[in-house]
Write a structure and sequence with these properties.
The complex is a heterodimer. Chain A is mainly α. Chain A has 13 helices and no strands. Chain A is 76% helix and 0% strand. The longest helix of chain A is centred in the C-terminal third of the chain and has 33 residues, at 240-272. Chain A is globular and about 75 Å long. By secondary structure, chain B is mainly α. Chain B has one domain: MetI-like (MetI-like fold, Orthogonal Bundle). Chain B contains 13 helices and no strands. Chain B has helices spanning 2-33, 51-57, 60-91, 98-104, 107-110, 113-124, 131-138, 151-179, 183-191, 196-224, 228-233, 245-255, 259-290. The mean pLDDT of chain B is 85. Classes of the chains: A mainly alpha, B mainly alpha. Chains A and B meet through α1, α4, α5, α6 and α7 of A and α1, α3, α4, α5 and α6 of B.
Chain lengths: 275, 291
């Protein structure tokens, strides 16, 4: 589509606005984490660092269990992602294709999961996990993360199944293949981008989860990054350099993940969702 | 048919069991809890009927929190919809770097909330933050202001931060709706001499409206339940000015040790939210039928 000069200027202005509002805070944090303390709190802030130091990172890694938090988060998020996929792919296929009584009612009830404050379940769940001996375990976090990612995962995957041309599936049905074989041999390869984006969604949900992890994890060695990081905030007098370094490190893994497969997530969201 | 039912059961049962155990059952126990007088986790309570409901409904803190929740949801919906729609429309254009922009716009959403909170607390702070000096330089203010020290500015700042985190996600969902609009419609309109604005009001807007409706519902549910950003930044303060329902529930349960009362507030909030979701999806479906 052709645009006039005026529209190009408007477009450029809006793009610039969004680029600034999204990236500027991250730039300030990342560059700030390498500045000397006196430059961080200077009256006139500097856009480009005038000093360079690694002291904040050294202090962070020597005075806290940050590496442990990172490993915990990676393990919890990866396991949560795998389980979410293992449960949601067959369920979404059943909700999409198989006929069974109460299908639509069940599907709607699953989506209602987001219609109540998650704080509500925190109170009874704490009691339940205490009885099962799951308080202060990473298993508890996996269980929680999977449950909260599942409804969205099922919803999104169902619309991905919907985007597969009918004829392909019908050919397999004609051949007399049972649902499990159709799902595994035909459908899953076809909706691989959808599965990738649901996987990223589950990973990020788990990586960023704070409330449940802060209540259910008691010992320092089992903390995830969000909880460990907020512990550092409270632990010291506000030491911005330390916090900026911590924020940068907590952001790095998701940025790396996204640099590798972020494209899938976005094309998945835009091609599969909202049907 | 019988075989299909068997597979449906095998496919759905594991996910469903998980949801029932971790979300369904606790929800039910929250309802039961609201009918008792349990004070802290693990202690036993006796049945008190609807006493908690009478107590909560006559409590001004509950009505204040409900009002603040409504303010919070409406303000977030307004800010996020405007930002997201603008971003989605831009991302639907062709310009150098659009692919990179489509991927990285989501950056604010993939970062842990704790980090988001820290970033903005720093940027808004009166010592070392970037925003006060910036506003002073531009000349909007002449001395640093404490963004979290008065109720209205605290609320507005929180809405800004939460919207900053969520609008890119909503924008990508809108972009999904936009890319579904067939491009020959625009071609035809252009040949008929329709300008950019007319193309937007006659094609883009009506075809995007159902998607927008769904997103407003989803966004409302998501922002109603936001807890961590508010809790970590203001803990409901100053003077209860940002104490929305989730904050009130948490405070009542874990600071005030009145579990049953907290469960009562939670049940009332859920009823409110489910009623909203029910009627909103229904009216949306009706509109869809009429189209």
């Amino acid at each position: 589509m052709r645009r006039g000069v005026g529209w190009n200027i408007v477009l450029g202005g809006v793009v610039l606005f969004f680029v600034l509002i999204i990236t500027l805070p991250f730039w300030w944090v990342m560059s700030g984490s390498f500045k000397l303390p006196q430059e961080i709190i200077a009256r006139v802030p500097t856009m480009i660092p005038q000093s360079f130091t690694l002291q904040h990172y050294v202090k962070l890694l020597s005075s806290s269990d940050y590496p442990t938090y990172m490993i915990n988060s990676l393990v919890v998020a990866s396991v949560s992602t795998l389980i979410t996929l293992a449960l949601s792919v067959p369920a979404a296929y059943a909700f999409f294709r198989l006929r069974f009584p109460g299908r639509e009612a069940l599907y709607r009830m699953i989506l209602l999961a987001y219609a109540f404050p998650s704080i509500v379940v925190l109170i009874p769940l704490f009691g339940m996990f205490a009885k099962l001996g799951l308080v202060d375990t990473r298993t508890a976090l996996v269980v929680i993360n999977v449950s909260f990612a599942l409804p969205f995962a099922i919803w999104m995957l169902r619309s991905f199944f919907g985007s597969v041309p009918m004829e392909i599936e019908e050919a397999a049905v004609m051949d007399g293949a049972p649902p499990l074989v159709i799902l595994r041999r035909v459908m899953i390869p076809l909706i691989a981008p959808g599965i990738a984006s649901v996987g990223i969604f589950a990973f990020i949900m788990s990586w960023t989860e704070y409330v449940f992890a802060s209540v259910l994890i008691l010992s320092d060695a089992k903390r995830t990054v969000p909880v460990g990081f907020s512990g550092i905030i409270g632990q010291y007098q506000i030491d911005w350099g330390l916090l900026l370094a911590g924020a940068s490190l907590a952001t790095l893994p998701v940025i790396l993940l996204f640099a590798l497969i972020g494209r899938w997530f976005v094309s998945g969201l835009t091609e599969g969702a909202v049907k | 048919m019988r075989q299909s039912r068997f597979y449906a059961f095998v496919f759905v049962a594991p996910a469903l069991l998980m949801l029932v155990a971790i979300l369904g059952w606790p929800l039910l126990s929250a309802v039961l809890l609201s009918l008792q007088d349990v004070r802290s986790v693990g202690s036993e309570g006796s049945w008190v009927g609807l006493a908690n409901y009478r107590k909560v409904l006559s409590n001004t803190a509950f009505w204040n929190a409900s009002w603040l929740s409504i303010v919070w949801v409406v303000a977030n919906a307004a800010v996020q919809t405007v930002l997201a729609l603008a971003a989605a429309l831009v991302l639907n254009q062709r310009f150098p770097g659009v692919r990179i922009a489509r991927t990285w716009i989501i950056l604010t959403w993939i970062v842990p909330t704790v980090v988001v909170v820290m970033i903005w607390r720093w940027l808004f702070s009166t010592s070392g933050g970037m925003i006060n000096p910036l506003l002073i330089q531009i000349g909007i203010i002449d001395r640093p202001i404490g963004f979290f020290s008065s109720t209205w500015s605290a609320m507005a700042t929180l809405v800004f931060i939460n919207s900053w985190r969520w609008f890119p996600f909503i924008a990508l969902m809108m972009l999904a709706g936009l890319t579904r609009i067939p491009s020959d419609l625009y071609e035809a309109a252009r040949i008929d001499g329709a300008g950019t604005i007319k193309r937007f009001t006659r094609i883009t807007w009506p075809l995007l409206a159902p998607t927008l409706g769904v997103l407003v519902i989803v966004g409302t549910l998501l922002s109603f339940n936001v807890f961590d950003i508010i809790w970590l930044l203001t803990s409901g303060g100053p003077a209860g000015g940002t104490r929305t329902l989730p904050i009130l529930i948490y405070e009542t349960a874990f600071k005030g040790y009145r579990l049953s009362e907290a469960a009562t507030v939670a049940v009332l909030a859920s009823v409110l939210l489910m009623a909203f979701a029910f009627f909103a999806t229904r009216s949306l479906a009706k509109q869809g039928d009429e189209r």
